[in-house]
Each structure stands twice: as structure tokens, then as C-alpha cells.
């Protein structure tokens, strides 16, 4: 994540000028488009074009890009709870982002573009509506993806690729502080499968395999001890793992508690 953090810090410095010039505000602002040179100004004219498209005077002025980028700093802390990192890296950036946050009403898109599909997939996974999430994942792959698997928003946007992948991960695993949700939005048609190396908040690495009978979860804790709860099929079980510890659990449909399998 270090290259990303360096990039956002540069965005933050450039964005102070944009906030002051365009809005007369303190803090920093970044609009919808980012590049290697860390430009934070509104950008509405496509490359090599002489004029913007219809409506391009409106959508470049989405002023929440800085706050969106900065949110990843705290997310990094959630995955690796290093207080020194929180105080020295996260807080200064979030403080600057908070100074310049404009409230916009977000309207749900129809999913006709890759980034819109990705948003909807992730919203449905958080809501636990697995089959609706799968429906929009299928739409993303069949209608908004090129043969080379790039996101089809001419000429290309990475949003649909990253967002679609995040949506798949959220179907299989969701973690909050002291809470691990196993297969929280698994579509009915995904009757069996497996995934390895998913990262969870609290410095967790989790691999999962499943079939019609239930699932097995392999949980590895990093440098920080973990105490929380498993949730699977609306059933909850408390767990506690020491730093560096690894355990496997079997979850059977209809059983109230997971079966402990092996400890390393």
C-alpha cells in the first residue's frame, strides 16, 4: 500500500490549491479523474479532443474524490491495527479530507456501465441479497467487459474490474471489527467452490471451501491477537486467536456450532 499512500499524499498537497482556487475552502479536494501528475482539477475533455461531451461540465465537478481516496488510509488501519500508523499517517489525511467534504445526494445507477454495475454488486452483497448481486455480476461480465477482461467504459476504466472483484470477495467474506461473516452473500447457483487468501480486518487471512453440506474456514492471524465472532447461516460462534495462530473450522448446515478441526 505504500505507493498508494505516497500518491494520495501528493494528491492532498495539490488538492489544497484546487480547494482554495475553485471553492475558497481550506483542506483539499480531488475530483473524479486521477493521473500520474496528481492533477486534482475538474477534467471534462477527453484526451486529444477539443471539446467536452454533453454534460461534461457537470460530472467532472464530483468533489468527493479526495475523501474517497483518503478512506483507504483508515481501512488499512482496520486490517492492520497499528496505532502509530493511525496517528502519523491516517489522521492527518482524514483531517484534511474532512475540511473539504461536500454533501451530494447519490442516486442509484442502472448498471449500464462497469463502475455502476460494480457499485450495485457491492451494495447487494452488504445487504445480503446474493442472487441480485450475482445478477449484476453477470451483467458486468457479459455487457460491460471486453474480450481481454478490461472494463468496457470507452476507452477503458479500471473501476469495473476492481469493483467487480471486490464484489465477489464480499459475497464470500465480510469482516467488521470483531466479526467475521463466512459466505454472507453466496448465490444459490454457486453450490460448491473454494477461495484462498482473502484478507480480513484485524490482520486476518482466511481461506474457505464449501459445498451443499457446509463449509470449512482456515483462519490465520498475523501480528495481532484476534477476539470476535464467526457468523455463518445466521448462526454465531465466539472465537479467540493468539497472534500468529492458525485454526481451521468446519461449519455444517443445521449445526449450531462450528466443529474445530486443527490448530497449528
Account of the 3D structure:
The protein is 36% helix and 22% strand. The protein is an alpha+beta fold and 264 residues long. The strands form two sheets. Strands 3-4-5-8-9 form a five-stranded antiparallel β-sheet, with no helix packed on it. It has a four-stranded mixed β-sheet with strand order 1-2-6-7. The two termini are 29 Å apart. Mean pLDDT is 83; it is low at 102-107 and 255-264.
Brief account:
The protein is α+β, with helices and mostly antiparallel strands and 264 residues long.
State mean pLDDT (0 to 100 scale): 83
Portion in strands? 15-25%
Major sheet description? 5 strands, antiparallel
Q: What is the N-to-C succession of helices and strands?
A: HHHHHHEEEEEEEEE
How many DSSP helices?
6
Q: For the largest beta sheet, what order do the strands appear in spatially?
A: 3-4-5-8-9
Number of strands: 9
Helix content: 25-40%
| Terminal residue distance | 29 Å
Bulk shape: flat
